Amino acid sequence: MNRIQLPNMIKKVCTNCVMDDSDPEIEFDDSGVCNHCKQATILLQQKPYSLPLPEKEREWELLVNKIKERGKGNKYDCLIGLSGGVDSTYVAYLVKKAGLRPLAVHLDNGWNSELSVINIENICRTLDIELFTKVLDWEEFKGLQMAFLKASTPDSEVPTDHAIFATLFELAAKFNIRYILTGINIATESILPRTWSYGHWDWKYIRSINRIFGQKRLSGFPHYSLGKLIYNLKIRKIQWISILNYVEFNKKEAKDLIQKELNWRDYGGKHHESIYTKFFQTYILPKKFGIDKRKAHLSALICSGQISRAEAIEELKNPISIDIEAKNEREYLTKKFGISDSEFEDIMKASPKTFHDYPNNWNLIERINRFRKRKK
Fold this sequence. Notes:
By secondary structure, the chain is of the alpha/beta class. The protein has a single domain (51-375), classed as Rossmann fold, CATH 3.40.50. Helices cover 51% and strands 7% of the residues. The protein has 16 helices and five strands. It has helices spanning 35-44, 53-70, 86-97, 114-127, 138-151, 158-174, 186-189, 203-213, 226-235, 251-262, 275-289, 294-303, 309-316, 323-337, 341-349, 362-375, and strands at 78-81, 102-108, 130-135, 179-182, 239-242. The protein has a five-stranded parallel sheet, with helices on both faces. Strand 2 (102-108), helix 4 and strand 3 (130-135) form a beta-alpha-beta unit. It is globular. Mean pLDDT is 91; it is low at 1-7.
């Protein structure tokens, strides 16, 4: 297997965004611009995101009408994932404003913050949206999360995303729903190194980590194979639609709106609605892997013109976490996992690895993607 040596210190920073060689696969051209900026530029040119606002609005109206027509006779005409974060909350707002009949789906993996529970309740009550909550078997999921921590990769949150995707597929089949509307978007998420977060769609990778480091089989964990993924997308024709690409999505403006209209309260960071996510991104990633995920988030905003590079640099001067919070959260995490502080310290000291070090479907997925591009 290919092994990547993760850098211990930053040596080079992109001249256009704030990504640096904490991503071991980053590449720079002669002007110092990184490959992530170039990939973001390609994404930003894709439709419907690249269309002028009036055309975007027409495309959104056409899509809404198509979803309504397809959903006639059904209790729901679309599914939305609802984490309680900015993006998914704004999706819920737009969907109801458009007159659609969504079923909101939330995955409870045992790490919801108290504030996230309050936000989700407010969102569904205010917008009159029915909520389905999938509660994971905690002992099973705890074992899987511990397996990822022991595997020493920086993508420990992949199992949660995989489970929510699997749950959405399952409910789409149950209620005969064709459309899954998501908050994934180009404006704020065009940049994320694969070595920082890989495997959301790769059951082979997740299963291999559990087989090597886990304590029990994943008998009840929501999942799907690559074959089942293709079946859902190509045979059942379920469509994943990033609806925030159909609007002028500005993160700050969206946050202001949902605070005003839905009584939504801020968590203080991207994906911090989860206690585990907050600790992982503000403690484990920077301390063990030298990764500050804010760099990817801010770089995406730079590329979409929502902030300047100078503003991003200024933001990165702020400490990534508060020591007293990190200490309390570390104690909470070790207690919830049922491990000692010394066991956790052993995990933190283990040599960093990436998904390349374990069995996965990356090469197969890449071949499929290349084939699809040739067919277009």
